[in-house]
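We were asked to recover a plausible sequence for a given structure. The inputs and outputs are reproduced exactly as logged, with field labels preserved.

PROBLEM: sequence recovery
POSITIONS: 266
GIVEN STRUCTURE:
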């Protein structure tokens, strides 16, 4: 299985977190994968066999091109044959800023890519399994540079997101409102429309990302991780981890080669 990330060119950094590629190299073995919240909406192209998705307890077939909103919990995917996916992780408010998407309506939903976004994958529509390399992601990058040139990408929510990420999710909401010269209610209203979640809930996801970053970099001292990630105590940390991931952190396979770890790995 190939797991590959491609960092966007400088012109796309305000818009895109990364491009990614998953390819089973022709292997048709059926595998069930857990997908966990990471704070980024995605557009996804399946260039091989389709996937099934299970968010609400029922398996459903996915379309070829998808839009995934913010997650508040984990869900499951499984392939139906050969795997081949290319995805774009967008900065949390960019789909709203550029395309007017109501991100609150997309929370915990993976839907067919709307026509307004279908142009994003135009260079890849004739892609076939076996033809995909990192150069494919580079060509998509170059296409989007031309497509998004001159686009507006700043708002008070963008500033709030930058603060949340720089603090690794340890952001005081009252201080954030004061920094932006907005009331807490106004900030939450704008944030939900642009991102889909409240700033407080989004901060919890980013704090969880930091936990994965520390563990994957080699820190397995749970007391230190709890302290550095700003949890009140270990019990509070475990509750938050299980809420998002669905299992105890001491039993989670941080070293496993799977989609969850791939997407949370920096």
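RECOVERED SEQUENCE:
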């Amino acid at each position: 299985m190939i797991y590959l990330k491609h960092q966007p060119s400088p012109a796309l950094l305000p818009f895109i977190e990364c491009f990614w590629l998953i390819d089973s190299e022709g292997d048709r073995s059926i595998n069930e994968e857990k997908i966990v919240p990471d704070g980024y909406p995605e557009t996804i192209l399946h260039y091989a066999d389709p996937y099934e998705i299970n968010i609400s307890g029922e398996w459903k077939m996915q379309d070829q091109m998808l839009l995934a909103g913010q997650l508040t919990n984990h869900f499951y995917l499984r392939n139906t044959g050969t795997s081949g996916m290319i995805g774009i992780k967008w900065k949390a408010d960019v789909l709203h800023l550029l395309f007017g998407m109501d991100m609150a309506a997309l929370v915990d939903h993976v839907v067919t890519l709307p026509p307004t976004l279908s142009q994003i994958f135009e260079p890849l529509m004739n892609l076939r399994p076996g033809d995909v390399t990192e150069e494919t992601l580079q060509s998509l990058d170059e296409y989007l540079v031309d497509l998004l040139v001159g686009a507006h990408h700043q708002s008070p929510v963008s500033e709030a997101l930058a603060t949340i990420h720089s603090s690794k999710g340890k952001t005081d909401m009252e201080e954030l409102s004061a920094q932006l010269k907005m009331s807490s209610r106004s900030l939450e209203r704008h944030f939900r429309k642009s991102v889909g979640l409240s700033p407080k809930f989004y901060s919890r996801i980013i704090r969880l990302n930091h936990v994965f970053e520390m563990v994957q970099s080699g820190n397995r001292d749970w007391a230190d991780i709890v302290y550095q990630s700003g949890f009140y105590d270990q019990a509070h940390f475990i509750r938050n981890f299980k809420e998002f991931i669905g299992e105890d952190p001491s039993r989670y396979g941080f070293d496993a080669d799977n989609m969850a770890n791939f997407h949370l790995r920096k």
